[in-house]
Amino acid sequence: ILRFAVTSFALIPERSLVHQEGLPKLPVPPLKQTCEGYLAALEPIVSAEELDHTRQLVGEFLNGGVGERLQKGLERRARKTENWLSEWWMQSAYLDCRMPVAVYTSPGVVLPRMHFQDRQGQMRFAAKLIAGVLDFKKKIDSETLPVEYLSGKPLCMDQYYQILSSCRIPGPKRDTVVNYAIGKISSTHITVVHNFQFFVLDVYNSDGTPLTVDQLHMQLEKIWNSSLQTNKEPIGILTSQHRNTWGKAYNNLIKDKTNKESVRAIQKSIFTVCLDAPMPRVSDEKYQSRVAAQMLHGGGARWNSGNRWFDKTLQFIVGEDGTCGLVYEHAPAEGPPIVFLIDYVRIEMVRSPMVPLAMPQKLRFNITPEVKRDIEKAKQNMNIMVHDLDVKVLMFSHFGKNVPKKHQLSPDAFVQMALQLAYYRMYDTCCSTYESASLRMFKYGRTDVIRVTTVDSLNFVQAMQDPAKQVGERVLLLQKATQTHKNNTYNAIHGQAVDRHLLGLKMLSIEDLTSMPEIFMDTSFAVAQHYNLSTSQVGSKTDCVMCFGPMVPDGYGVCYNPMEEHINVAITAFNSCEETNAARFAQAVEGALLDMRALLEDAAATAQQ
Q1: Which H/E stretch holds residue 152?
Q2: 283-336 residue pLDDT tens
Q3: Do residues 435 and 453 make contact, with C-beta atoms less than 8 angstroms apart?
Q4: Predicted pLDDT at 353
Q5: Considering only CA atoms, which of 364, 534, 540 is closest in space to residue 447?
Q6: pTM of the full predicted structure?
Q7: Which residues form a coiled coil (predicted)?
Q8: CA–CA distances in Å: residue 376 to residues 243, 305, 398
């Protein structure tokens, strides 16, 4: 009796949706505060003349009645909805965006290299991975996922309910996301793709229990053996196209009943597993960068780019050569829930009795001449995209969070100041910099922007480049800049940042069909929105590397995971831009981090004398 009582207690962690009801709503910040914050953010990135002009426009917006009217409308919207921002954000940031999802919006995650080099290892690992994710799904379905906290406050867990059994669907002008987890009949299959051929794999027995690792292994073997042909049309590559192009091709594809049913099976599946062919070998030094690229785009039409369905929210990638990771479609969720899932899926083994299982069903596609033409076009465009993406993974091994913590500095602010210093050293100027901040303290919260470039960060990087400045002065400026960053981060996660509020005011003026306020037509606004540095910290217990493409043609994408004694940084740029170079920037970041440590140590040594 006692034992029963103890175990039943252990199985009742806090229900993840119990808190959901009590979460606060996303606030609408005061208008004056946002206007002041906006001007402060512009100061280091626009010229004095531009700033004066914008100050005038902001003054008119604030005092001329237009801002006040939109602010009232926004406050009204906030009262009437669960979250005044979430729908607008999903539309404007993702569903209206017409660039391909591969490279441009879908992040990739590289998992630590696995020590297998053959199909046996690949199958075993894939089977364990599937079992682990199904175990995670059980937690989501039974609402027993432990609630996450940030500085003592419970976070919104809604994104976990959006990542499984969901898929993006292209439209001619705007996409949609379907979620089959929120229906009466939930999905019981995953899709597995091998040699460009898709299969439906039922992952539950008739009694509702998930297949064991051994059963999954057996089914994957069957799939592998019935997809040995390597000359199949890579239907999945269509999903990597520009969204309007894919929207047209999609409608054409699903005119055929067989195709429509096959596509629907992929969309409804819980997630997708891509069994990748081995890639050309590279040196250990280049390995991480190559895999990061493989996670983002598959390596090109002749490699694994056709072994994907990029619209699928969650695709796990397991290569025959030990390469593992995933790519996810960004519209339904941010990185942290995905990384939380990875940290959860620790690979463990269970033996089990063998029951004969039905052959997984291969999905059929009828390739008409039009579809064939669409595939050829998609292959060409994918290869252009592959050649254009420049990826460099920096495994910074000299130190990690331990150094900034020892000097009482925030590790995140420390890394961000290193990025600022690296950029300034390369370009002799600073730029508009985006760091995403989670709004999950609020119901249905997604992200806002921490604007990293501040007057204080500029003062610090300039002092580092000025030989006349002494160590003591540089350290004070670093402390001030990191403190400002910390304050801006605090404001952002508490719903008091600038960018989403401005977006809300702009969206409202579009919906009201009134004339667009001047501040949104101003060059300063365009400069502020042109993020040459798009950055994100994605902390994870697993030693993984997350990566994403740049936000702008002449920018960098920088994703970093600061561990205790090392920092993983993935940097992307486009080769079509002369000015940017991922490897050079990585070198500059490494130099900046080392110089900042030296600065702190010099100051500490001087203080002790």
Answers
A1: none
A2: 888 999 999 999 999 999 999 999 999 999 999 999 998 999 999 999 999 988
A3: no
A4: 53
A5: 534
A6: 0.92
A7: none
A8: 16, 13, 46
3-state secondary structure 577-597: CCCCCHHHHHHHHHHHHHHHH
3-state secondary structure 511-577: HCCCCCCHHHCCHHHHHHHCCCEEEEECCCCCCCEEECCCCCCCCEEEEEEECCCCEEEEEEEECCC
Residues 221/226/227/228 CA torsion (nearest 10 deg) = 90
Dist. CA 35–CA 134, nearest whole Å: 47
Alpha-helical regions (H) of 97-236? 119-141, 213-225
Of 499, 432, 434, 524, the residue nearest 58 (C-alpha)? 524
**The pLDDT of residue 348:** 47
Chain Cα centroid distance, residue 108: 7
3-state helix, strand, coil in the chain (%, to 5): 45, 15, 40
Quick one: pLDDT at residue 18?
61
User: Of 330, 485, 494, 501, which one is the catalytic site residue?
Assistant: 330
53 included as an active-site residue: no
Sign of CA dihedral 292, 265, 444, 21: negative
Six token digits for residue 524: 């300063």
Ranges in the chain, pLDDT < 70: 1-19, 183-184, 346-355
Tell me how far apart the alpha carbons of residues 124 and 35 are, in angstroms, rounded to a whole number.
56
Nearest alpha-carbon partner for 79 in 33, 27, 32, 30 = 27
Residues 6+ apart with CB under 8 A from 213: 127, 128, 131, 349, 350, 352
Spatial distance between the Cα atoms of 120 and 479, rounded to a whole number of angstroms? 53
Domain residue ranges in the chain: 16-82+397-537+578-608, 101-389
* 3 state SS for 25-63: CCCCCCHHHHHHHHHHHHCCCCCHHHHHHHHHHHHHHHH
CA distance from start to end of the chain: 67
Residue 49 CB-density burial (10 A; 0-12 exposed, 13-18 middle, 19+ buried): exposed
What would be the CATH architecture of the domain defined by 16-82+397-537+578-608? 2-Layer Sandwich (3.30)
pLDDT at residue 75 in the model? 97
- The two tokens of residue 345 are 């899926």
Specify whether the CB–CB gap between 391 and 292 falls below 8 A. yes
**Half-sphere exposure for 395 (CA within 13 Å, toward CB):** 12
Question: Who contacts 18 (Cβ-Cβ below 8 Å, separation ≥6)?
Answer: 143
Residue 530 is encoded by which pair of tokens? 């042109």
> d(Cα 460, Cα 466) in Å, to the nearest integer?
10
101-389 sits in which CATH class?
alpha beta
What is the rounded distance in angstroms from the CA atom of residue 66 to the CA atom of residue 572? 40
Nearest alpha carbon to residue 436 among 358, 323, 337, 335: 335
